[in-house]
UniProtKB/TrEMBL annotation:
InterPro entries listed in its UniProt record: Bact_response_regulator, CheY-like_superfamily, Sig_transdc_resp-reg_receiver
Lineage, highest ranks first: Bacteria, Pseudomonadati, Thermodesulfobacteriota, Desulfovibrionia, Desulfovibrionales
Entry's Gene Ontology BP terms: phosphorelay signal transduction system
Protein name, per record: Response regulator receiver domain-containing protein
4-aspartylphosphate: residues bearing it: 53
Pfam families documented for this protein: Response_reg
Length: 155
């Protein structure tokens, strides 16, 4: 299945290698280095899948998930990070990311995850934007953290 894929990562080597090997297997690949650049690409075309690094120079890849929901897109999102935490993994799944992958990534494993995500996109409904996310995610160059409103004390 050929798909339109957006790769968002601040590391040029990752964007370049993903673009090369995903194009070689028949996908149409667009890359973005920064969050705002990714939003611009999302304005320009519809993507079947987005591969988003969590930590970006000008934003947080997790906010891509929020943007997909806000725009009512059927686009699948895979979150990637070299700095995994239980909080960001849990938050990404609650925000309906199709997968959460830890770098470094192996080509075979990434292709398997992409295939599963694209299969899921054929049966997945548009995400609902009516329900607010019960947590917040904040990212910086030093990492990300997630906070659930359910874990906060009312005292």
């Amino acid at each position: 299945m050929q798909a339109n894929i957006l790769v968002i990562d601040d590391e040029e080597s990752i964007r370049f290698s993903f673009q090369r090997f995903l194009s070689a297997v028949g996908h149409h690949v667009i890359t973005a280095e920064k969050y705002l650049e990714a939003l611009s690409e999302m304005d320009a075309m519809e993507f079947d899948l987005i591969l988003a690094d969590i930590i970006l120079e000008d934003g947080c890849g997790m906010d891509i998930l929020r943007e997909v929901v806000k725009r009512n897109l059927k686009t699948q999102v895979i979150i990637m990070t070299a700095y995994p935490t239980t909080e960001t993994e849990d938050a990404s799944h609650r925000m309906q990311a199709v997968n959460y992958l830890t770098k470094p990534l192996r080509q075979k494993g990434l292709l398997y995850s992409i295939d599963l995500a694209l299969q899921a996109s054929q049966t997945r409904q548009v995400r609902t934007k009516d329900k607010p996310f019960p947590f917040s995610v904040s990212c910086s160059r030093n990492g990300c953290s997630a906070k659930s409103q359910y874990l906060e004390s009312n005292h």
